[in-house]
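Question: what's this shape?

___
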Amino acid sequence: MYAIVEINGKQYRAEQGKKLTVDRIDADQGTSLSLDKVLLVSRDETVTVGTPYVAGVTVKAVVEEEVKGDKVIVFKYKPKKDYRRTQGHRQPYTVLNVQEIAGV
């Protein structure tokens, strides 16, 4: 059984008992979240698609930790002009532990 949830404008596949790495959410570690923007629920052979969301279904998750992604190097240059700029970036992520898909 799984559900497709919308978090911060992006879609993620959530399964009970699995960890989900999403873009940073402003929540403390150990906080329980109830995600109600469920777009699709698949259970056994039945699939329920929302218009745009499935009514009465929520995904309950707990914030595990905040991590940083791999470093991305941004390098700009202009040929023959002695212009070079290097900048690094690490995207922050939040790891969620999906507890249950309720209301199915």
